[in-house]
Amino acid sequence: MPQTIPELAWVGRMVALRRAFAPQLLGLAAWSRHLTDWIGEMPWHEQSLFGSGQTQERDKRAQNAMQRALAQAATIRVATDDAPITLDGFVACCARAWQEAETTLPSMRDGVFVVSREADLPDVDHLAVLGVLEGEFPRRRQESAIFDDEVRTALAVARPDRIPLPLSTEQASQERDEFYRVCVAPGKSLWLSYPLTGEDRDNIAAFYLSEVERVAPGAIKRDFPRTGLVPPLDECRIPADAELARALAMEGHKPSPPSLESIEARLAVRRDPAKGVSPAELADARACPFVWFARHRTPIRQPGIREGWRRLRRIPVRARLALQTDEQAAISSMEQALAELVEQSRPYLEPFEARMLEIGGRRLIRDWTLREFAARALWGRDEDAVRSEAPLGEEPFRETLTKADLDVRLVGHVPALSKKNGRWCVHLVESRNLGTPANRRELEPDALLLVGLLAVATPGARHTLEIETLSGRRWLYVMGEMDFREDPERNLFVVHYPDYRAFCEEVVRHLSQAADRVSNAEIVPTPGSVCRSCTYGEWCRMHLEYGEVAAMGSSREDDDG
Fold it and tell me: What are the b/e assignments for 352-385, b being 16+ CB within 10 Å?
């Protein structure tokens, strides 16, 4: 066949080469030199040398990439162990090297020429610059938050033998000069454009565009609607354009909120409060049903930096802070708990996030320790009645909360339990919004706080609830007529509820709402301040930051932790 068809003469040559070299054992470098010789004998080499147009340029680039990848592999092999291999082994080495090789195809001489920097611009008549946004291109002067210009200058003076770090003024000048070169590059027309909106917010045009308007008053400014992205529907030539044109012509509508429609799905997710539910589940269900669903009823886990901050609440519990007798022992035990928590979270965090979690945890440990012993001195406690991780359902807690048609059995533990003046006090560590010192009586009801109150409540009882937060405040909620002072300088605050019966009625209302949600498997989000600390925002279509639906009338109160 090769003898009768001239175009296939190379096949006979390849067969002869295989017959001659198949028995040989050579190093990879030697095989690579033979390959270079074989390529020179083949007609493909002549086509890449003497061809024309795009094909010639493509073949040259492909051959260069192939030989460069093989030469790199041979260099590494010679430096390590260039053991002799057969022809089949050499072919396998080529396949591995070429599988990872990359090359770029030449651009067409006509059409739209796309570049990513000014230095690559050819001689053009018309130039369109896309994405002229503030902070993108061209960037104005902005000093580094780590090493500002003053520090960089001092480093350059102290180490004149080293290359100095660039100053913000130099970088801004480079951006300005590049923008100038872009503006003068085209011969006939220049288009400077940017998208009015991004994925989640309105964009800000670069400052330089206002300067262009000032120095070129004849420049035309136009806003193009989204409908201009495609031709009119009757002029669309491809199905994708037609579908986009129909979508743009439709009226906008809000997506439906998430919900479980089938009975089977609801039965798989629901909880029976009478059979046992934790205070944490009730807290999440009252705050936002979607958070309850994602955190407690699905395998979804979001162990990012936000969830890491939330998990810091476990440190005082793991360290049994309530049982520590002195500040040094408390710090040592909490630092050990912090190290274990960071190590568990490390696989799910970026290195800088793990470092941030560690630094933030140490700051919290220092503050928690100071407030813990300051609170003991200010509010007192009965040392012989202190318990850590007290289980619900055992004395003094009631196993079941019952009122009218509400029947809830609580399961789990509270971090600590103590007595003040002979009355029980529940200790919690919270990260939710508990109000501010200036707005103490209008606290957002929190099911975890409320369940803790009801768990120890008996008619006419007087008790307290002490809550540590992640934001530098400790709260003491006092039921009934008991006198406790506060110390704002040490961030110890007191909230009194003298009308205990009215407060309990409000508690029951919120508890009933949370129990109904877990029993009916409700998962519709309730956006609001809970979104600020939510770790499931990317799955929620109504989240204030990530969602597609703007929450009307939702509050963005300042969080207390």
Answer: ebbeebbebbeebbebbbebbebbeebbebeeee
